[in-house]
Design goal:
It is a single chain. The protein has 527 residues and is an alpha/beta fold. The chain folds into two domains: 2-79, no CATH class; 138-245 and 276-470 and 484-516, Aldolase class I (TIM Barrel). The protein is built from 21 helices and 15 strands. It has helices spanning 2-23, 28-47, 52-56, 62-68, 73-79, 90-101, 167-180, 193-196, 222-229, 260-266, 286-299, 314-327, 348-353, 358-371, 389-397, 407-412, 435-438, 443-467, 493-496, 504-507, 511-519; strands at 121-123, 138-141, 150-153, 155-157, 183-185, 201-206, 234-240, 252-253, 274-275, 305-309, 333-337, 379-383, 402-405, 481-486, 489-492. It has an eight-stranded parallel beta sheet with strand order 4-13-12-11-10-7-6-5. The protein has a three-stranded antiparallel beta sheet with strand order 1-14-15. A two-stranded antiparallel ribbon has the order 2-3. Helix 12 (314-327) packs parallel to helix 14. 46% of the residues are buried.
Length: 527
């Protein structure tokens, strides 16, 4: 690369100047020193392993770290931007980076938030805190039809595919998951050797393209699925219905990016553009969905099987609940993906205007399962802008059993939100298939950061719950999370939302749910 070649030219020029100083004139020592300093710095940048930016952009990459030291205005504007261009919480990103580096520490002064601003949420502390548990909690995933239940961590790596992420990024995430004892979702791009090399626990995600288990015509191949699902590293199987950042549309991978390796992993022709359909071909009704999930569990040898969605119509999800009741079988888990979740490429209108936010989606799915008497059989995962222990506790309180993080995990492996994911020119080697750029991401260093971040975030969640007088997430209650409605009014989640009693929809649905419950049809996805 040209920017790396300049280091070589500087080195040659510096050596030439030093030689001239010895053989021609001592005045060349000045030029030699001026050239040698950036040359030595550039060589150091290329061989060091801590900073991917410096490995890809020797010497000039230091400007980025200089800007980080000019706080807060320039750092806020130049460095800390969200994927969609909107400001991302400076405190949140700083927390992720510090925990990933293992330097998480207390900071002086108070909150920078306006606690009297409408919409501000806060967790309620107890006058009688309890001791912080010494062991990270696990969540047993696997209903009555599951033969191989899995103990899920409170925080895991969310779905990010090989192809959208580089091989080194996948290796770092998986190695970190293996070292930390948490799960790594493969994303819908297939299960590659990079997902398997370090032995991390996998949640194999199957999308509408059925990558890794498809026929030449793009149909689901049961034989290929069964063979791969039997792998010992695969602990769960997830059927992706929709993604929070772009619900209702499929993905597109340009033919130029479909190299031989990606074509092999996805089971598609090399060099041809791959378009994932917006819908599944193996089912078209709620009943068929429930049956297909049960079939996937059987083909996998009884491993926990579920589906992921960004909830939309409450009536449609209630139709799925009715199908579960009539078929007598349930998924082992449901992952609720919020509309605030990020992605490397999505139509702007979808990112801004389509899909249910995570809080509303969680409340809908949790309440529907409780009201239908199914909640005890199904675990709920939450994904969508989860980065801190406080985020995790809020999602557990709103109905989730565990959570997945994507963006925060990308921060941990070095993402600086350059917003060039779709260009194949990621400056830190996270979202590129260019091997020269991807080499900047050191797997050993970044996997340790992933492990540290996950461990510190779960520990933070445990500490927060202990301060609330809660020893286990099952003890969290809706009144423990409060929201400011206006400068003079605060309401708890117990007051603001309707929480159904177990089996209430079967016995006597409340008026606010009755019409949707009655109209829900297990044989049609009626809006």
């Amino acid at each position: 690369m040209i920017r790396i070649g300049w280091v070589g030219l500087l080195t040659v020029a510096a050596l030439a100047a030093l030689g001239a100083a010895v053989w021609i004139s001592p005045w060349w020592w000045v030029a030699g020193a001026l050239l040698a300093l950036p040359a030595v710095l550039g060589i150091y940048d290329l061989v060091q392993r801590r900073h991917s930016v410096l490995r890809n952009y020797p010497v000039i990459g230091h400007a980025r770290f200089l800007l980080e030291r000019i706080r807060p205005e320039l750092q806020q504007y130049f460095v800390e931007r969200n994927f969609d261009g909107r400001p991302f919480d400076r405190d949140v990103r700083s927390i992720v980076y510090e925990r990933a580096k293992g330097t998480d520490a207390e900071e002086p002064y108070g909150t920078e938030r306006d606690v009297y601003q409408p919409g501000h949420e806060f967790l309620v502390p107890s006058m009688s805190p309890c001791p912080v548990p010494q062991t990270p909690p696990k969540v047993r995933v696997g209903g009555p039809d599951c033969a191989q239940p899995y103990d899920m961590s409170l925080l895991n790596v969310s779905a990010m595919s090989f192809g959208s992420l580089s091989a080194n990024a996948i290796l770092a995430l998986n190695r970190g998951a293996a070292a930390g004892g948490f799960a790594h979702d493969t994303g819908e791009g297939g299960m590659s050797e990079y997902h398997l090399r370090h032995g991390g626990d996998l949640v194999w995600e199957i999308g509408t393209g059925y990558f890794g288990c498809r026929t030449e015509e793009g149909e689901f191949d049961a034989g290929k699925f069964a063979d791969k699902a039997a792998h010992s590293h695969v602990k769960c199987v997830s059927l992706k219905l929709s993604q929070g950042a772009k619900p209702g549309i499929g993905g597109v991978l340009p033919g130029a990016k479909v190299n031989a390796e990606i074509a092999r992993v996805r089971g598609v022709p090399q060099g041809q553009t791959v378009v994932s359909p917006p819908y599944h071909r193996v089912f078209s009704t709620p009943r068929e969905l429930v049956r297909f999930v049960a079939r996937m569990r059987e083909l996998s040898g009884g491993k926990p099987t579920g589906f992921k969605l960004c909830p939309g119509s409450r009536r449609q999800f209630l139709a799925v609940c009715k199908a579960m009741l009539e078929e007598g079988t349930t998924p082992d888990f449901i992952i609720v993906d919020g509309a605030e979740g990020g992605t490397g490429a999505a139509p702007l209108e979808f990112a801004d205007h389509v899909g249910t936010p995570l809080t509303d989606g969680l409340l809908t799915v949790h309440s529907a399962l409780v009201g239908a008497g199914l909640r005890s059989r199904i675990k709920i995962g939450a994904s969508g802008r989860i980065a801190t222990g406080a985020d995790l506790v809020k999602r557990l309180l709103q109905g989730a059993d565990y959570a997945n993080a994507a963006r925060a995990m990308m921060f941990a492996v070095g993402c600086i939100q350059a917003q060039r994911c779709h260009t194949n020119t990621c400056p830190t080697g996270v979202t590129t298939q260019d091997p020269r750029r991807a080499r900047a991401l050191d797997v050993g260093d970044k996997s340790l950061r992933v492990q540290r971040f996950q461990e510190a975030t779960v520990a933070s969640a445990q500490q927060i719950m202990a301060s609330m007088g809660v020893a286990d997430s099952s003890e969290l209650r809706p009144h423990m999370l409060q929201r400011r409605i206006d400068p003079y009014t605060v309401r708890s989640f117990a007051e603001m939302h309707e929480w159904l009693a177990p089996g209430q929809l079967l016995a006597e649905p409340p008026s606010s749910w009755a019409a949707d419950w009655q109209a829900a049809d297990p044989d049609h996805f009626t809006v």
